[in-house]
Amino acid sequence: MIPLRDIVPSRTRPYVTVTIIILNAAAFFLEISLPPAARQQLIQTYGLVPAAFAWSAVFTSMFLHAGWLHIGGNMLYLWIFGDNVEDQVGHGRFVIFYLLCGTVAALAQTFSDPMSPVPTIGASGAIAGVMGAYIVLYPKSRVLTLIPLFVFWEIIEIPAVFFLGFWFLLQVFSAGTVTTGTQQGGGVAFWAHIAGFLAGIAAVLIFRRPERERVEWWSQ
Fold first, then answer.
1. N or C end of the chain: smaller count of CB under 10 Å?
2. How far apart are CA 181 and CA 190, in angstroms?
3. How much is the pTM?
4. Tell me: domain 2-219, CATH 1.20.1540.10, correct?
């Protein structure tokens, strides 16, 4: 399922969300401009390596990506769900919220395999937190979704609770299969996704600002 947009209009300009997207894009273009050896060295230095844990890498790793699909998917999800969460918690609080979720996600991934020499990179843990917050703030929202069905491509509206809930359950199932050794996981940080999502659900209860809540879109 490929999300295209949600139905909730934002009342404020998502300055922080846009800035995060720009920073990720700038870092990615820097990556791909480097020769392969230098690119690998950059990822090894600024990615989060569990076996050589460094707090600075927790934050720098959130802005590195492995390829076009990796960054494209992450930024699409951030664009769709981030503006509304930023609208609800406020710009400054959203910065702290985003980094907090990303940190929890990075720590969870580190604890899941503390001796791994493989660097973990990507914004997906922090964005999972945004998705967790969205499901709390907008339980009645819907997501316009593209569903590829072999030859036919269907575009339908799916309840946000179902869309995000299915995504979360898929992460849990995938993490379980990796743990039991039935598959390698394809390099996906499933535990980071799970922890980030749960952190977003919990943190938004503290970060949200009740005076910014709105209900008029529910009737759309």
1. C
2. 14
3. 0.90
4. yes
